[in-house]
Every structure is written in C-alpha cells, then in structure tokens.
Amino acid sequence: MDRIRSNRRVQIDESQEPKYDVAEDGAEGNGMRLRLSDINVTEDQEPFMGVKVRRRASLHRDYKGDYIDVASHPYLMKILQKQGDKQVVFADKVLKFTGSGKMKRRILLITDFAIYILDPETDALKRRISLAAVEKMCLSELSDNFFAIIIPTEYDILMASTRKTEIVTVLVEATKSASGEVEVAFSNSFEYQASAELTKEVQFEEVEGLWAVELIVNK
C-alpha cells in the first residue's frame, strides 16, 4: 500500500476549539427528554484509566451532557423527533475532519439510539449513525483532544473536542444497550476510513510539551 504524507501537521489547543454557552441542568421541552448527567465521574470509572496521559482538568470532572441547550433549538428538536429519538445523552460543538483533512465546526448529538452530526451554520443534518453500527473508538495515548469513531459498514469520523473524555464515556455506556459495549483502542498511530474510498493514518507525537497530529493518506 502506497502512502502519501500530508504537507502539514495539525496542532490545536483548547483556545481554538468551539466556544459554547453552558445550558442549565434539567432543561426539558417539546416532548424531548434530556438526560443531563450530573454524576461526578472518577478516574477508575472511565474507560481508559491507566492507559492515557490525562490533563489534570479532565480528572474528576462533573459531566453535564447537554452544553448547547438542545430544547431551545427548534430545528434540533424537529430532526430528533422525526427520527423518533427522545433521549439526548450528549450535545456539544466539536471540530470534525473532512475527507480532505479540513476542520469543520459541527454539532455532535448522541442519543440512546444514534449519533448525529449537524452543521451549525446551515442547521442541516449531515449524518446519522446508529449506535449499533459503531465498532470501536480510537484515541492516542497523549493528552490531546482527538478521537475517531469507527463504523465498518459506512465510513469513520475523526473529531476533536475538549470534552472528549465525556464523549467516550457516554458512547461506551450508550452502546451497551444497543450492540454491546464499544471497544476503546489506544495507539499513537491508527488508521480510519476518511471516506468511502479514502483511508488515512493518524500519527500523534509530543514535542516540547505540545502535541501534533499528522494525517497520512494511504492508497
């Protein structure tokens, strides 16, 4: 397999990631039940303890679930109700990598049945993925914000979020009832299907206290 190495590395710190207003707990409306976790998750309850270098800020963090107040956005409620989803377990803005390697701002919604990717600028649903289709999640062993969701029957997703720990924990719990607990794999180099016909390798490294991500196209 030939490999084409990209010309640039991606370096992201938390100041570059999406900003948001934190919604109040207990938000509810239009028949949509929002399960906003206020559980204080400790190190030994998370799915990657003892494997990954952690930021101090991510330890013993209170998880809220909905960080964009889904019930206040009619277009989100309409999309979820059309699909028959009534329980939102996570909602936030993230950065998503396109097949060409560009970063796009997206809204990530996780319900008890599916993952939704939406465009916050056009209010359009870009993709809906059944939880039963998720095989595993790939993360590096560093304290970066990146994670990939692997969907063998379709194509995969590479995203970045300062709430990655919560997203992984939520998906592990949500998939238990949908298809059995999803695998969480750790490596500083892994492949993901960026599109139907394009496979990329993601490589992570830490240099002088900063981490960098390099995308390599496999042909």
From TrEMBL:
PROSITE patterns linked to this entry: TH1 (PS51757)
Domain of life: Eukaryota
GO molecular function terms noted in the UniProt entry: cytoskeletal motor activity
InterPro entries found in the cross-reference section: Myosin_TH1
Signal peptide coordinates: none
Residue ranges of domain TH1 in the record: 52-219
GO CC annotation: myosin complex
Region Disordered, residue ranges: 1-26
A Pfam family this chain is assigned to: Myosin_TH1
Compositionally skewed regions (Basic and acidic residues) per UniProt: 1-22
The name this protein goes by in its record: TH1 domain-containing protein
Native species: Lithocarpus litseifolius
